[in-house]
Design a protein that fits this description.
Layout: E1 2-7, E2 10-12, E3 18-26, E4 30-39, E5 46-51, E6 57-59, E7 67-72, E8 77-82, E9 91-100, E10 105-109, E11 113-117
Parallel strand pairs: 2-11
Antiparallel strand pairs: 1-3, 3-8, 4-5, 4-9, 5-6, 7-8, 9-10, 9-11
């Protein structure tokens, strides 16, 4: 089993910054991609950013140039630096990890952390 523990959410004013962290723990062989998704009230879960074990990144168009994803493979931790936050960034942010097993890969999700952008 793999546990993903998120931290760093909260309330911030428009234009402000937040940094989310997600640490993976448990028994696993390796972690392939890690990433962040978000879900606003009434909406489905959407991709925010992902990063592979080799450092290749991908971003939603809505966050390009404002958010930056990074990863510390030694700590099995992924970060999301969020700058120039907008009210429409308000959502529950979920950490995701694609974990490599002996035979196949498995998807794991964190419990979610609330990000609220409001004045």
């Amino acid at each position: 089993q793999v546990q993903l523990v998120e931290s760093g959410g909260g309330l911030v004013q428009p234009g402000g910054s937040l940094r989310l962290s997600c640490a993976a723990s448990g028994s696993f062989f390796s972690i392939n991609a890690m990433g962040w998704y978000r879900q606003a009230p009434g909406n489905g879960r959407e991709l925010v950013a992902t990063i592979t074990s080799s450092g290749r990144t991908d971003y939603a168009d809505s966050v390009k140039g404002r958010f930056a994803i990074s990863r510390d493979n030694a700590k099995n931790t992924v970060y999301l630096q969020m700058n120039s936050l907008k009210p429409e960034d308000t959502a529950v942010y979920y950490c995701h990890a694609l974990v490599e097993g002996l035979v196949r890969s498995y998807d794991y999700w964190g419990q979610g952390t609330q990000v609220t952008v409001s004045s």
